[in-house]
Amino acid sequence: MNNIKINSYNLPLIRDIGYIHDSNGIFRHPDRKMEKIHVFIFVVEGSIHVFEDETEFRINEGSYLFLRKNIYHWGGDLYKPGTKWYYIHFYDSPQSESMIEDIEYKYYPQSSLINEDTYSTKLSLPKHGTVTNANYTESKLKNLVALYDNPHPLRPLQLSLQTYQFFIELYSNHIEDQQESKNHYIVNQMIKIMRNSEHKLTGEEVATTLGMNYAYLSTIFKKQTGRSVNVYQNELLIEKAIEMFKKNEGNVSEVSDILGFSNPFYFSRVFKRITGVAPTTYINENYRYQ
């Protein structure tokens, strides 16, 4: 489908943003192959007919389309009279082009800990879709056009940042629309059970609560989240440990016991594996409060 992927830590680099109105329907989408530039189109009124690499798209009112760089695309029918649309032309960042790994961002409820590898992932932008609130989307794009026309010295950076936020909203809405499946529901139920538990649950406890086979549950959990059930529960425990350290509610040994770890040495290994630093280092480097 020629989806565009952006890195979770890089901004799209804007070339130009604009608004077009073909009142008489006498033009069509240009025939072109843009070597370095991706294209985003959102139709406010009317309809645009586009082909990309032999795939046909009709972008109607309230719908959008991403066209990938270096792939030939061309117009089909003339624009419907009165068609109005916004467009964004943007480059990949240099880091995006040089990055070798292609790990998809995992969209699921996470602990408060942000792991470094989160920023080594990519987001696959939805190829084509329809927004639920067209007026809201149009207002966001109007603001981007106004910013593009503003001569402020920081305009390029502000445009890239706000466009990234706009794309993230489209991505988030698209993913949530897809999460009506049975597997997503099951994973979200597992997460809710684990987050509400006062202790680390065994596989049998998780399976009994949901009335399902644990081997099946653990398989779909890893597939959907990118983490095993055990790793996810460890992250939740370390999240609690950090909160206890901040509130001076115990030293390493005491917190390890309270959270049910077999011994402080194992607790320290898990803590460092998740946060990147030993618990004693974390205590010395971070704020504490009552």
From TrEMBL:
<feature type="domain" description="HTH araC/xylS-type">
    <location>
        <begin position="188"/>
        <end position="285"/>
    </location>
</feature>
<dbReference type="GO" id="GO:0003700">
    <property type="term" value="F:DNA-binding transcription factor activity"/>
</dbReference>
<protein>
    <submittedName>
        <fullName>AraC family transcriptional regulator</fullName>
    </submittedName>
</protein>
<dbReference type="GO" id="GO:0043565">
    <property type="term" value="F:sequence-specific DNA binding"/>
</dbReference>
<dbReference type="InterPro" id="IPR018060">
    <property type="entry name" value="HTH_AraC"/>
</dbReference>
<keyword id="KW-0238">DNA-binding</keyword>
<dbReference type="InterPro" id="IPR037923">
    <property type="entry name" value="HTH-like"/>
</dbReference>
<dbReference type="Pfam" id="PF12833">
    <property type="entry name" value="HTH_18"/>
</dbReference>
<dbReference type="InterPro" id="IPR009057">
    <property type="entry name" value="Homeodomain-like_sf"/>
</dbReference>
<keyword id="KW-0805">Transcription regulation</keyword>
<keyword id="KW-0804">Transcription</keyword>
